[in-house]
Amino acid sequence: MAHVCEWFHGAPGDTILNIIKEGVMRPDAAHQIYFSERFEDALQHGADTRRKASFAFKAQVTVVDGAALQRTARPGNPLTVLVTTALPLPAKILELYIRVGRVGEFELKVIKGVEAVKAYLLQ
Asked: What does the pLDDT look like over 2-59, one tens digit per residue?
């Protein structure tokens, strides 16, 4: 039976906009999608050189029937959630976390709501 979870995922801005547009997250070639239980750990995967920032988002994700779910630890992400499926996962972006600046001088911004996230990334 499908169930809904809230997790964090790091991705560049254009990828996030595509998730908003399509309403789904697509697994990679190995049929995997990685999530984190903390936004801080997901930021490392959201480097966006065009926007000069790193992004992570909180999403409401529907884990589809037949998907395998595994909680594990990965380098830099001790609270990894690995979903293995060949099917896209319905997802709704809830919040965007933006890290800008340099090491030791980082600033963190939080944008709430899908429309505000979309507006921020399209500016």
From this structure: 899 999 999 999 999 999 999 999 999 999 999 999 999 999 999 999 999 999 999 9
Determine the Cα–Cα distance for residues 85 and 69; give it in Å rounded to an integer.
Answer: 9
Query: Contact 38/7 with Cβ under 8 angstroms?
Result: no
Instruction: Name the domain count of the chain.
Output: 1
Give me Rg for the CA atoms of the chain.
14
What is the model's pTM?
Answer: 0.93
Structural domain including 114 reads 3-122
Closest by CA to 112, choosing from 96, 91, 92, is 96
Q: How far apart are CA 93 and CA 19, in angstroms?
A: 8
**pLDDT more than 70, % of the chain:** 100
Residue 10: beta bridge partners?
A: 56
Pair 103, 83: CB distance under 8 Å: no
Measured distance CA(88)–CA(28) in Å, rounded: 10
